[in-house]
């Protein structure tokens, strides 16, 4: 392969660029969403599906984890939720004939977009040792292959069981039980790449790794809502409805982001006449175009300013709250006192005027909610940054009262629930004790591998079986080429999936694809319709049941797959009633109610439309179950990323037409990019300094001690991002992220801070 030549198709030949949009959603949003549904699923199936989306008695949207309001709109979905549904409800099929016609080698040259567009998987498929093609296999045959490989391991830690956050509570609970009965805590999940930094920071400082607000805190109570490191217009569109409600009753909104994202500026609510035909609601009162990675310095500067204001007036800091509920303020304040304004300016790219106007907003607001997502969690210093946001909230007692608190906005629709169910490589001892008591066995106590450690173990030949319950491990993880090689060396990979994706085409030496039901589909077991449960970003647990005919009669539910696999592997002597669990999911919920705190009386409470909320001690009673029983201020040392001359700090983001590694289409309407994805957004002044023209073809190159990494064939787009920064889409850019470039403490790939150089190429190398 020549330098810079694409290793697979790029679908970018028609790429063109227009000015970015100033507002989000409105009628075009709905039209785009509905078009996808009708194209893929047909009119009748599409309408049938969307009617029950996010409604009591219907299914939970397979898109994001934003909560549903108590009284849902007539159509409680958004453009991107509709696209997520269309992907699943599609009438296209990937069947045995498809695999006979396409070798694995051929499929590996296809783009992620192409792979996803082929449709739903229909039958179990098996790649025998180093074979060119997948061939059909029976379900029993597939379970035999897995059982045989697991039986050949010299230690249960030679297996790793990945989970992606669409998995239901019931399936997740069984999956972790199976892994632990087998004897391993190797339960990596997508959360390791997502909100792990939030969990780590919140666990340490407030004693629970989940957000502390409810939807009403945002819609009805908060006086100031800070949206930092998040692009809700694309990734949590229904959040804009909540922000609009807040705005209309007089709340203020501040957006902190290196990019002027459309949804943060004006929202045209498609559910209202005003939003469809009018000018829409302006959302952010203040927009701070911060530099990538500048948030720790920013919040330190703000906290210092709040302390100084308090020294003058005595009423800025909530002394009563701090005295009664917190510890560690003096150590934190010591760091703020030493803060160097020049360093703050370098890190944030903001003027002191801009920082002061934020401080004014904060002092005038009696209650503040801070919302954040991947813009904060995927940096080297993510955990200290989020701890610093907790410092910020604690200073004014902005936690555990109406309209105030921390709101890490989760990604996958049940990623938070999967954690609650035990999908974590280091579940607390108390959980393992209760699991042990309920199921009469000794779960392993040594911590397992997270996502990055799983890949390291693959590289070292320490993994014999890699199983994934959903997701797209090969495309979502960093260091794409090395990770693909690592996956190819694993003796057996197993993917429980709905759609074809990259992970299937960089298979282990033997590999299984096990096709499962999706959220939208009817799940019949033992003649009775089953429902599953999920937990949203605000700890609300509710039921979800699909209504569509399954894409193929051969599909099994995730629960059924795990239960049958567990029985086959653990044998007839295992006392767990796997068959009963598979036949009646209420039997699983009964066990969950005895193992997981907050789920008491689960079956009765889940019958309530809209479900129930899990306990959260800081939110409910200002109780902080930390190591010292207090909400903890932390002293976070500032460490400003220094970017050498001629280099940019690259963040990797989602376009408006994708769900993680699933590419819905090739447009990013809000940012003005059409018919292609290989673009890099750079500030026009930086382009002038670098001597690169808008539209120029470039390779992105990142430099590391173990060598360079290259993502070839991009086009430069002059864009109003913060100076010194750049942005490009994921997963195309994962090749630039070395495995060891991770956040401190959380070990999350730092895929939002990559120092890169743009290397001009003679002409575009996009596919012919
Ligand atoms: N339609 C759709 N919905 C989704 C997803 C999807 O792919 N498509 N993915 C789901 C998942 S799993 C997740 S985790 C969420 C992700 O939701 P987001 O976190 O909104 O997703 P990203 O595209 O990664 O956007 C990161 C945002 O943070 C900003 N940012 C980057 N670096 C910094 C920084 O250093 N400081 C600050 N202040 N801002 C920064 C970027 O400019 C961008 O606006 O969305 C979920 N919902
Ligand atoms: N560079 C960079 N890398 C990133 C990120 C980033 O911002 N930048 N974001 C990270 C984040 S936040 C996340 S969450 C991860 C995402 O990592 P993953 O969760 O592993 O990836 P997804 O793309 O969400 O997975 C999509 C696949 O899930 C399968 N699927 C869909 N629905 C179902 C279902 O109901 N059941 C089953 N069994 N399978 C199903 C389909 O086969 C589909 O191809 O990526 C991470 N990687
Ligand atoms: Mo995520």
From TrEMBL:
It comes from the Bacteria. InterPro entries: Asp_de-COase-like_dom_sf, MopB_CT_YdeP, MoPterin_dinucl-bd_dom, Mopterin_OxRdtase, Mopterin_OxRdtse_a_bac, Prok_molybdopt-oxidoreductase, YdeP_MopB. The keyword 4Fe-4S applies. Keywords: 4Fe-4S, Iron, Iron-sulfur, Metal-binding, Molybdenum, Oxidoreductase. The keyword Ribonucleoprotein does not apply. Residues 648-753 form the Molybdopterin dinucleotide-binding domain. Coiled coil: none annotated. Residues 1-15 have a biased composition (Basic and acidic residues). Pfam families: Molybdopterin, Molydop_binding. One of its GO terms (molecular function) is molybdopterin cofactor binding. One of its GO terms (cellular component) is membrane. Belongs to the prokaryotic molybdopterin-containing oxidoreductase family. PANTHER family: PROTEIN YDEP, RESPIRATORY NITRATE REDUCTASE. This is FdhF/YdeP family oxidoreductase. It comes from Phytoactinopolyspora halotolerans.
């Amino acid at each position: 392969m020549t330098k810079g030549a694409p290793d697979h198709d790029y679908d970018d030949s028609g790429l063109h660029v227009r000015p970015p949009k100033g507002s989000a959603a409105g009628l075009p949003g709905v039209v785009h969403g509905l078009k996808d549904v009708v194209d893929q699923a047909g009119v009748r199936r599409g309408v049938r599906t969307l009617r029950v989306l996010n409604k009591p008695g219907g299914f939970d949207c397979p898109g994001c984890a934003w909560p549903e309001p108590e009284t849902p709109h007539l159509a409680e979905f958004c453009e991107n939720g509709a696209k997520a549904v269309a992907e699943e409800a599609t009438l296209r099929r990937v069947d045995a004939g498809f695999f006979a016609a396409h070798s694995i080698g051929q499929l590996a040259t296809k783009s992620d977009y192409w792979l996803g567009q082929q449709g739903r998987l229909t039958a179990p498929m098996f790649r025998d040792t180093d074979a060119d093609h997948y061939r059909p296999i029976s379900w029993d045959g597939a379970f035999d292959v897995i059982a045989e490989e697991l039986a050949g391991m010299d230690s249960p830690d030679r297996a790793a069981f990945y989970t992606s956050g669409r998995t239901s509570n019931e399936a997740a609970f069984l999956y972790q039980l199976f892994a632990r009965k087998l004897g391993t805590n190797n339960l990596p999940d997508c959360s390791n790449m997502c909100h792990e930094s939030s969990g780590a920071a919140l666990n340490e400082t407030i004693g629970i790794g989940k957000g502390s607000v409810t939807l009403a805190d945002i819609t009805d109570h908060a006086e100031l809502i800070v949206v930092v490191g998040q692009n809700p217009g694309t990734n949590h569109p229904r959040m804009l409805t909540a922000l609009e409600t807040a705005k209309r009753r007089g709340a203020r909104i501040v957006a902190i982001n290196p990019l002027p994202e459309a949804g943060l500026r004006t929202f045209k609510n498609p559910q209202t006449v005003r939003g469809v035909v009018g000018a829409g609601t302006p959302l952010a009162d203040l927009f701070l175009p911060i530099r990538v990675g500048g948030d720790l310095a920013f919040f330190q500067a703000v906290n210092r300013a709040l302390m100084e204001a308090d020294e003058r007036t005595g009423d800025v800091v909530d002394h009563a709250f701090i005295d009664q509920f917190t510890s560690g303020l003096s150590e934190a304040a010591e760091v703020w006192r030493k803060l160097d304004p020049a360093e703050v300016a370098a890190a944030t790219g903001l003027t002191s005027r801009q920082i002061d106007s934020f401080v004014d907003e904060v002092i005038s607001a009696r209650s503040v909610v801070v919302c954040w997502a991947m813009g904060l969690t995927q940096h080297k210093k993510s955990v200290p940054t989020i701890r610093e946001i907790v410092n910020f909230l604690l200073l004014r007692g902005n936690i555990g009262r109406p309209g105030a608190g921390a709101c890490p906005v989760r990604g996958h629709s049940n990623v938070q629930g999967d954690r609650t169910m035990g999908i974590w490589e280091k579940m607390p001892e108390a959980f393992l004790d209760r699991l042990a008591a309920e199921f009469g066995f000794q779960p392993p106590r040594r911590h397992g591998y997270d996502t990055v450690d799983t890949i390291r173990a693959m590289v070292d030949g320490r993994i014999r079986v890699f199983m994934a319950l959903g997701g797209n491990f090969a495309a979502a993880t960093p260091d794409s080429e090395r990770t693909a090689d690592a996956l190819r060396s694993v003796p057996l990979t197993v993917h429980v999936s709905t759609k074809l994706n990259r992970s299937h085409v960089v298979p282990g030496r033997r590999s299984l694809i096990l096709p499962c039901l999706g959220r939208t589909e009817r799940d019949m077991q033992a003649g009775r319709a089953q429902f599953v449960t999920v937990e949203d970003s605000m700890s609300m647990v509710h039921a979800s049941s699909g209504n569509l005919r399954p894409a193929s009669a051969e599909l099994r539910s995730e629960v059924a797959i795990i239960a049958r696999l567990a029985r086959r592997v653990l044998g007839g002597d295992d006392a767990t009633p796997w068959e009963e669990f598979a036949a009646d999911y209420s039997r699983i919920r009964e066990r969950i109610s005895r193992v997981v705190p907050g789920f008491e009386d689960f079956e009765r409470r889940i019958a309530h439309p809209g479900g129930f909320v899990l306990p959260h001690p800081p939110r409910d009673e200002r109780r902080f179950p930390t190591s010292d029983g207090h909400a903890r201020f932390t002293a976070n040392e500032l460490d400003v990323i220094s970017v050498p001359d001629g280099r940019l700090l690259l963040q990797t983001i989602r376009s408006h037409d994708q769900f993680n590694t699933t590419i819905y289409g090739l447009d990013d309407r809000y940012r003005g990019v059409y018919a292609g994805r290989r673009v890099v957004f750079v500030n026009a002044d930086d382009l002038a300094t670098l001597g690169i023209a808008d539209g120029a073809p470039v390779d992105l190159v990142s430099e590391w001690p173990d060598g360079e990494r290259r993502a070839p064939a991009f086009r430069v787009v002059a864009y109003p991002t913060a100076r010194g920064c750049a942005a490009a889409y994921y997963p195309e850019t994962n090749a630039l992220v070395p495995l060891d470039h991770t956040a401190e403490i959380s070990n999350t790939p730092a895929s939002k801070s990559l120092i890169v150089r743009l290397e001009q190429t003679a002409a575009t190398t996009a596919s012919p």
